[in-house]
UniProtKB/TrEMBL annotation:
<dbReference type="InterPro" id="IPR025943">
    <property type="entry name" value="Sigma_54_int_dom_ATP-bd_2"/>
</dbReference>
<dbReference type="Pfam" id="PF25601">
    <property type="entry name" value="AAA_lid_14"/>
</dbReference>
<dbReference type="InterPro" id="IPR035965">
    <property type="entry name" value="PAS-like_dom_sf"/>
</dbReference>
<keyword id="KW-0067">ATP-binding</keyword>
<dbReference type="InterPro" id="IPR009057">
    <property type="entry name" value="Homeodomain-like_sf"/>
</dbReference>
<dbReference type="Pfam" id="PF18024">
    <property type="entry name" value="HTH_50"/>
</dbReference>
<protein>
    <recommendedName>
        <fullName>HTH-type transcriptional regulatory protein TyrR</fullName>
    </recommendedName>
</protein>
<keyword id="KW-0547">Nucleotide-binding</keyword>
<keyword id="KW-0238">DNA-binding</keyword>
<dbReference type="InterPro" id="IPR003593">
    <property type="entry name" value="AAA+_ATPase"/>
</dbReference>
<feature type="domain" description="PAS">
    <location>
        <begin position="2"/>
        <end position="52"/>
    </location>
</feature>
<dbReference type="InterPro" id="IPR002078">
    <property type="entry name" value="Sigma_54_int"/>
</dbReference>
<dbReference type="InterPro" id="IPR000014">
    <property type="entry name" value="PAS"/>
</dbReference>
<keyword id="KW-0804">Transcription</keyword>
<dbReference type="Pfam" id="PF00158">
    <property type="entry name" value="Sigma54_activat"/>
</dbReference>
<dbReference type="InterPro" id="IPR013767">
    <property type="entry name" value="PAS_fold"/>
</dbReference>
<dbReference type="InterPro" id="IPR027417">
    <property type="entry name" value="P-loop_NTPase"/>
</dbReference>
């Protein structure tokens, strides 16, 4: 759903919706709000709610109170020209830095008196749903992570983004799996930004990077004098730092068994025990974990606690490797060329042959490797156009491929069609190299079943006889 669709939906409802910016300036209101206030959009857009309140149009201004308190509120409001009062709720939509971007208020329709408790709950549910949708639209237009964005046009990748948006609404634990460098941390951050915890901390802990002897004190903290060498002031752990927000446990499969039970307690009971303390501390955090390992297999081998695996795996998502979505490589290359051109104040491009070689490479390091490769190429090249022979040696091995892109000349061609034609040609090229579709799928880095679906999609019938 885009912004225009959402506003059309709000405009069709009998309830009033009123949106201001962070300074209280009116940016949009639904038709029901116009009727309620007996004003047109042209009269209201641009007007500040402080001024409208002084004019007696409504009292008090919910948007003003939300901005002053910096929190969502519900109050009883009087509107000029009506004897009955209205229950009005105001919610905040925050920007990527946690500041206020919009205030969205909701009021009952013009023929609705003071709402009952049940009706109030229904109104709150409706408003929360639309505020969440506004947050989704805003987050999609922001850069989640400048060095590892959520960029992809494949149906599976789009489905995965939709899955993340559904997961964000819940507060259950999440397990994200996928190879190193494929963007698990970016999806974790995306889920956090779309959740009700978006204005609270997002704390990432790499379970494989912290020494085992320090992990417990780093995560849970310690009381002063808890052990020899401990700080005289004690230490706040990362769980406490993440209070109210999200704790992202990256590479959870690296966590030693004796520490896994403490994470299980944190998830199960929402409590933890700092070193040297005798009383449990409560924790209001959402747990998102990620791993490039098969935790179920590890649990069967008694290398990972089965009870922790099932606690983590309430909601799960698998991020695909880059070789499983080759049609997205061009989009990512274009993105990173732009990113590093801006970073280093350059204006370099990749040659057609360089793009072909990069699209042919299997990217075992996934998006992280692609990003590093583009950055290195831009820095090291002495030319405005980077050629294939300036790429790393392991990638240049693909330079001898006879596959070439034949569709670059038509600049008016839709991107989807352009990418489909590249993918079709690339698959045909690999099918010519291989003796069987199984071997071709291996060369492409995709499952054979996926290759067969693409062969059928593109009508590459002359290769269907290969087994």
């Amino acid at each position: 759903m885009n912004k225009e669709n959402l506003l059309e939906i709000l405009d069709s409802l009998n309830d009033g919706f009123y949106i201001t910016d962070a300074k209280g300036n009116t940016v949009w209101m639904s038709q029901a709000s116009c009727e309620m206030l007996k004003k047109t959009r042209e009269e209201l857009i641009g007007q500040n709610v402080w001024d409208l309140e002084k004019q007696g149009l409504f009292s008090p201004s919910v948007n003003r109170l939300v901005l002053q308190k910096n929190e969502s509120i519900s109050i009883i409001q009087t509107i000029k020209g009506y004897h009955q009062k209205f229950l009005v709720s105001g919610h905040i939509v925050r920007d990527e830095r946690g500041g206020i971007k919009w205030v969205v208020t909701h009021a009952g329709s013009i023929n609705r008196d003071l709402l009952s408790t049940t009706q109030h709950a229904e109104v709150e549910a409706v408003l929360n749903r639309y505020v969440q949708e506004l947050r989704n639209l805003q987050t999609k237009n922001e850069t989640i992570d400048g060095t590892n964005p959520l960029i992809g046009e494949t149906p599976h990748f789009k489905k995965l983004i939709g899955q993340a948006e559904k997961i964000a609404v819940s507060d259950a634990s999440v397990l994200i799996t996928g190879e190193t460098g494929c963007g698990k941390n970016v999806f974790a951050n995306y889920i956090h930004k779309l959740s009700e915890r978006h204005d609270k901390p997002f704390i990432q802990v790499n379970c494989g990077a912290i020494p085992e002897s320090l992990f417990e004190s780093e995560l849970f903290g310690y009381k002063k004098g808890a052990f020899t060498g401990a700080s005289g002031k004690g230490k706040i752990g990362l769980v406490e730092v993440a209070e109210g927000g999200t704790l992202f446990l990256d590479e959870i499969g690296e966590l030693p068994l004796h520490l896994q039970v403490k994470i299980l307690q944190l998830i199960q009971d929402k409590t933890y025990l700092p070193i040297g303390e005798v009383y449990l501390h409560s924790a209001n955090v959402r747990i998102i974990a990620a791993t490039n390992k098969d935790l179920l297999k590890l649990s069967e081998e008694n290398k990972f606690r089965a009870d922790l695996f099932y606690r983590l795996n309430v909601l799960s998502m698998k991020v695909p490797a880059l070789r499983e979505r080759p049609e997205d490589i061009f989009l990512l290359l274009r993105h990173y060329v732009d990113v590093y051109n801006k970073k280093y104040k350059m204006n370099k491009t990749l040659s057609r042959e360089a793009i072909t070689v990069l699209q042919s490479y299997s990217w075992p390091g996934n998006i992280r490797e692609l990003s590093n490769t583009v950055e290195r190429a831009l820095i090291m090249s002495d030319h405005d156009q980077i050629e294939a022979d300036e790429l790393p040696d392991n990638i240049q091995e693909y330079k001898g491929s006879s596959f070439t892109v034949q569709h670059n000349q038509d600049v008016n061609k839709p991107l989807r069609k352009y990418l489909d034609e590249i993918e079709k040609d690339f698959i045909q090229h690999k099918l010519q190299e291989a003796k069987t579709t199984r071997e071709a799928a291996k060369l492409l880095g995709i499952p054979q079943s996926t290759l067969m679906r693409k062969i059928q999609k593109y009508g590459i019938n002359d290769h269907l006889q290969k087994l």
